[in-house]
Amino acid sequence: MSSILAVGSLAFDTIETPFGIQEKVLGGSVNHFSLSASYFSKVNCISVVGQDFPQDHLELLKKRGIDTLGVKVDKGNTFHWSGKYGYELHEAQTLATHLNVFEHFSPEVPPAYKNSEFVFLGNIVPALQDKVLSQVSHPKFVAIDTMNFWIEGHREELIKVISKCHCLIINEGELRQLTKSFNILTAAKMVRNWGPKLLVIKRGEYGAVLFNDGDVFSVPGLPLAEVKDPTGAGDTFAGGFMGYIASQPSFNLSRYTLRKAIVYGSVMASFIVQDFGFKNLLPLTKEMINERYHRFVELTAFNLG
Q: Which domain does 154 fall in, by range?
């Protein structure tokens, strides 16, 4: 089983939804990605935290098979994001962003990670994503995520990094912003012309769409009786998606593998939204994950004659 090199934020999140307020929940893109992917593959993590970050959480990551050799502890405070959601829960209103030690983060890939075959470039400034990628030797599969802030302020730099990747994972609104196209078919063609063969569009409660050359696959969101907090759902999706691909005995991006990966990503995202933070990811078992996978299969089965 191959390991995944993942770079992104380890952070504190203050979250307000119609279902409650949580102060300084442990979060961050690489945190959610790594915990999700760890159910399928080993993960090597690159990030930075402040002196206020709890050591026991780093120990928790290690127990989940997540290597934290690339996590640097700097003087100062950990990155802290505050956001608010309305009842639709599909888009957060950012209330405050305190970069803290992340402001001067300059990721260095440890020698043990340089031959990583799978790389996930989490949602950070494009120049840092590019710096990580330049330190890795001939990866087989690189996926990149981003957000509206980087699209608005670093679009050309971001497109340059995307052109070096195999897969772009992005939400629907950000895809339109990035490509300046309202039609997702036109937008998908533009992304593929930049370089990535794969485009995964995250659609929140409405599921996800995969574009793979001429092949299009769509999976709905799983109907859930309770949804409390969508924070980190996209990174959790990416962890399940990429973790499943990395878990295969031999590397392949077949139609079958990619479609299953999309469903497993959706499975993992469906768990995290049911509570605040990442706590719903911790007690999972393979049996629980596979049971929910089969719920997706039943949800989408139509050739029953």
A: 3-10+32-42+113-300
